[in-house]
Design brief:
The complex is a heterodimer. Chain A is α/β, with parallel strands linked by helices. Chain A is built from 12 helices and 10 strands. Chain A starts with a helix and ends in a 5-residue tail after the last helix. The chains are: A alpha/beta, B mainly alpha.
Chain lengths: 269, 287
């Protein structure tokens, strides 16, 4: 009996530390709380550099909380964590959150460009509001970021228009451009396409594929086809626990756990 | 089947009739609301237009019995009083409102919110007495400064609560977007949240200023009034409202007429202020 238990635990640990490669973010025994409610339970996971990791799982499984713990946005809404998250080996709780969030950018579910700013100023909001004022350099960054977000051709003649007057899909790409402009290492995406139509969604997915050349991307998604399409690795969360984490191809063809299989084949969730 | 159809058509006509009736009632209420305003405008213009000339804006009041003269000192005085009141009241109001909305989810915040509501209900004459005690007595004489302080106290609740409500309307997602970009919290609050809410806040400021410009009672204890030219903030100062009060209750026909003109000028002044504010706060983009 006792021996069996031990074997079980070691099996879980082994699963959780794969894939074996240079990891950008390593999460050790992370638990997250809202007040006394534990929404994430002892998560350990390695997130590799310049790859796309998809986090899937049913609503309320803690995937957004996990994402928001990584850039310390969880604490903005009054949450707390225990355990450690390391960015390039540095404990994020020991870093200044403002500095951390410049290293780890975030794209939200609902496009949220600043309505009082032009497209231009939206892109460089993170730089301008941090005191960066070199007009020429800003122009270059705007062009580069909008090109990287595949939005340049659509807005290059209207850079002084409001950032809120373009379509939802364009707004979301503007938000991605705004995130890129700060030049982070990691981009967190919290269901970035769930409020968009299929064409805009396809554009965002293409974009993610391009972006992983330069950035480490962690994407939370409700859409399993999307996870299968865009990610290199997939993590399945359920009830605040990391059930399975492996190569996306393996995950969607031969998952190890029954629970994972049930979820991805649509039997629950 | 037929019976059922009849019921349906009866219900339909009853609903339609109710709709028309209620529409008429709301329309009447809207008309009743604007009648006083139209009457005020009509009477003020009709009675005040006669003395509305260049002299009124350029000359000082004449002694009793002598006709003519103007109220340039009162016009300038009112502007100075609003400027002092706004100079104190606007920053305090905006900052308090910002504090309440962004950092005031605690007991102290609740207390401040409650007291602000109480303050907005305090009669203006009482505020005048407070300013008298706080400023006039220590300085040993009436002054424009004391008047400005009284007006500031009257403005603060309006500006505070409007600011708070307007900031609360800014979606949380903008704050998160700012923070997630690595913008410090205070900068996110000032440059993103306040900027987004700015139009609404400006309306609050305008309401506060307009109310202050129309106050008489608190000025009687503080700015007092002045028949002569003065722009010294440490001396008593003339104001349109105090002149309206004095001139309208005086037993001279000439003064009564000038009181109407003063009222007209005050309304014009507030309208002008409103217009200037609209132009200043007109944003490039719809929010």
């Amino acid at each position: 009996m006792k021996i069996n238990e031990q074997i079980d635990i070691s099996a879980i640990v082994e699963e959780n530390i794969q894939p074996q490669m240079a990891s950008k973010i390593s999460v050790k025994d992370l638990s997250a709380f809202f007040g006394k409610t534990k929404v994430l339970k002892n998560i350990s996971i390695e997130l590799p550099e310049k790859k796309v990791v998809a986090i899937i799982g049913p609503s309320g499984c803690g995937k957004s909380t996990f994402l928001r713990s990584i850039n310390r946005m969880h604490e903005v809404v009054g949450g707390t964590i225990t355990g450690n998250i390391f960015l390039d080996g540095e404990d994020i709780m020991k870093l200044d959150p403002v500095y951390l969030r410049r290293k780890i950018g975030m794209v939200f579910q609902k496009p949220n460009p600043f309505p009082t700013m032009s497209i231009f100023n939206n892109v460089v909001a993170g730089l301008k509001l941090n005191g960066f004022r070199n007009r020429k350099a800003l122009k270059e960054i705007v062009e580069k970021s909008l090109k990287a977000a595949a939005l340049w051709d659509e807005v290059k003649d209207n850079l002084n228009d409001s950032g809120a007057n373009i379509s939802g899909g364009q707004q979301q790409r503007l938000c991605i451009a705004r995130t890129i402009a700060v030049n982070p290492d990691v981009i967190l995406m919290d269901e970035p396409a769930s409020a968009l139509d299929p064409i805009s969604t396809a554009k965002i997915e293409e974009l993610i594929f391009e972006l992983k050349k330069d950035f480490t991307i962690i994407i939370v998604t409700h859409n399993m086809q999307q996870a299968a399409r865009v990610s290199d690795y997939t993590a399945f969360f359920y009830m605040g626990e990391l059930v399975e984490y492996s190569d996306t191809k393996k995950m969607f063809t031969a998952p190890d756990k029954k629970q994972t299989e049930d979820y991805i084949t649509g039997r629950f969730g | 089947m037929e019976v059922k159809n009849k019921t349906i058509s009866f219900n339909y006509f009853r609903r339609k009739a109710t709709n028309i009736l209620m529409l008429f009632v709301s329309f009447s209420a809207a008309v009743i609301t604007i009648i006083p305003l139209i009457l005020i405008f009509y009477y003020t213009i009709a009675q005040g237009i006669a003395h509305l000339n260049i002299d009124f804006f350029t000359k000082l009041p004449t002694p009793v019995g002598e006709s003519g003269g103007g109220m340039v000192n009162a016009i300038v005085g009112t502007l100075i009083l609003i400027a002092i009141g706004g100079g104190i009241g606007i920053p305090v109001g905006i900052m308090t409102g910002t504090y309440l909305s962004e950092f005031g989810k605690n007991k102290f915040g609740a207390l401040v919110r409650f007291l602000t509501d109480v303050l907005s209900g305090v009669p203006s004459i009482v505020v005048g007495v407070v300013a008298y005690t706080l400023v006039v007595i220590p300085m040993k004489h009436f002054s424009a400064l004391a008047g400005g302080v009284a007006l500031a106290i009257l403005m603060i609740p309006t500006i505070t609560r409007t600011t708070e409500e307007m900031i609360k309307l800014v979606p949380h997602s903008y704050r998160e977007a700012g923070l997630a970009l690595g913008i410090p919290k205070w900068k996110t609050t000032v440059m993103i949240v306040l900027k987004t809410a700015w139009k609404g806040i400006a309306t609050g400021i305008l309401l506060g200023l307009s109310r202050a410009a129309g106050e008489t009672a608190p000025l009687l204890f503080t700015a007092l009034g002045n028949r002569f030219w003065s722009t010294n903030v440490f001396q008593p100062i003339a104001s349109l409202t105090v002149y309206i009060y004095e001139y309208s209750t005086a037993p001279f026909k000439d003064w009564n007429d000038q009181a109407w003109t003063a009222a007209l000028v005050l309304i014009l002044l507030i309208s002008l202020l409103s217009l200037i504010f609209r132009i200043i706060t007109r944003s490039k983009y719809k929010t």
